[in-house]
Every structure is written in structure tokens, then in C-alpha cells.
Design a protein that fits this description.
alpha/beta; D-Maltodextrin-Binding Protein, domain 2; 2 domains; four-stranded antiparallel β-sheet; 11 strands; about 40% helix
Length: about 300
Amino acid sequence: MPWRRVPWDSNGKRWPRWCATPARFRWRATPSTARWKSLPESSELQRLRLGRIAYLNTEPFFASDTIRSAAVSLPPRQMYDLAAAGTIDAAPLPSVALADHPDLFAQVGNFTIAAAGPVSSVLLRSRIPPSEFSPGTRIGVTSETATSLRLLKVLLYEYWGLGQGLLFDPLGPENDAQLVIGDQALSEQAAEFPHLIDLGAAWYEFSGSPFVYALWLAGPRASESALEELADYFSVNLARNGADVSEIADRRPGLGMTEEQIESYLAKFSYRLGERERVGLEQFFELDARVRTRSVSR
């Protein structure tokens, strides 16, 4: 499935990963970096119908301002549906949105949510080892997912060879295993599911590439000038939040996580789409198309 390539930035320079190492989080403002403050909230940017995934790993793009508070906050699946219907102009959409609608969405700069390895927030939890899955095994799936379910099916069919005859249901007490994502996966303990598989770790073991969970995408209504302002807004906030997560921690007290835990979690992600992320995205799109074709043909 073809997808749109964009330059790493408008000058052709390589963007650094926002949080390549925990050391980036220990950086603090100095006189030379004091310019990293919130941008003015222009009328052009304010007119954008903006979406915000209701998960912790989306917070680095935002400041505690009216742009964030005015953005529609939804889980990934529901945000995807609104964007596809044209109700949202720009949002961090599940990466499969670009594969499904390459002519509807355009990338906003090179902004992404990706990771090379475990992320702790995309989990398959199971009563039995996944190696014991068999036809009739029931996997409960959160209603919030779009990309993660398709990632799970890629791993089941292409990596573990376990996809045949599995049943996918809503989350419930009858599930043999469950796919949970986002803040639910971070904060919810489930002793009845002792076997945990981090799908980010499994993908990296399988492919050797980062997994791209989300891309900032825009629909046709968004003006180029508004998206340029949005990209500037993101760049400022990624730099500032990467230096100090205290503002993010203040926005998310309900998670019960310390600043150090939030810092450690966000350090797992990259927020700029680099070459390795592009390769991983292409790998996933190809495998996802293969699995979906197989499912339809049966």
C-alpha cells in the first residue's frame, strides 16, 4: 500500500528523536533555550478542529492551554471514525488510517508516536501462554483500538503462526486473553491474566524495526498555513515537555504515576518519523494487507 513520504523538515534537515534517551528529559532550560515557551494561539490555529488522543503518550505535543482544552479528546478508534467523516481536521490518528485512506489524509510534518521495543501500554494479557492458543480461544479486544488489533493479528499469523480459528470478542469475563491499550494497560492490574505480551516488544523482535502507533494526519479542510502553525506549536511543546515533564504530570493526576514514572514511560517513544520508523511502517502496512487479504479470502 503506497503512503505519502514527507521531508524530515522544511529545510531537509534530520530531526532528532524527541526523547531518544532519558538524558534528554534531564535537560533544563538555560538562557539560550528560554525561547521555548508556548506560541501565541493564532486565529488560524484556533480555527482548526483538532483532535487529541486521550492517552498519556499524546501529551508531549500539547501545552496546558486553550488549544489543548478545545481539542476533542477521544480514544484512537473513535477519533479515526470522526476524522474519516470529516468532523476533525487534524489529529494523531492510528497509523492504519494512512493505509486505509491514502487519498483522504496527509501527514502533518513528520510527527508520530512510535517506539522501538516495549511500551507497556499495548498489551496482550492471557490466562494461558499464547503458545497454547488454539481454534476457539477467545481474545477480548478493547473497543478503543484500531491499529493495535491489526498489529496483534499480524503477530498471530505472521510471527507466531497462531491465527487460525481464534475468536475476537469485546472485553469480558469469558475472555481467554485480552488486548488492552493506552492508560488502561498502564494502570490496570489483572491477576487473572498472568501472561503478558508487550506487542511493541514482539513486533521489534519480529521485524527489527520500530512500530508506528500513530501519525499526525490532516484532512482536506485544514489550510496549509494552519498546519504550519500547528507544526510549530508541536515543535515548541516537544522540546519543552522533553526537558521537563512536570506540566504533563500535573495534567494527568488520575494515572497515579510519579513524574519519574511518566518520564520513563515517555522516554520509550519517538515523536519524529525518521527513516527507521518509515521502514517499520512500510513493513507493517505490507503484512497487514497480507493478513487482511487472507481473512477475506477464507
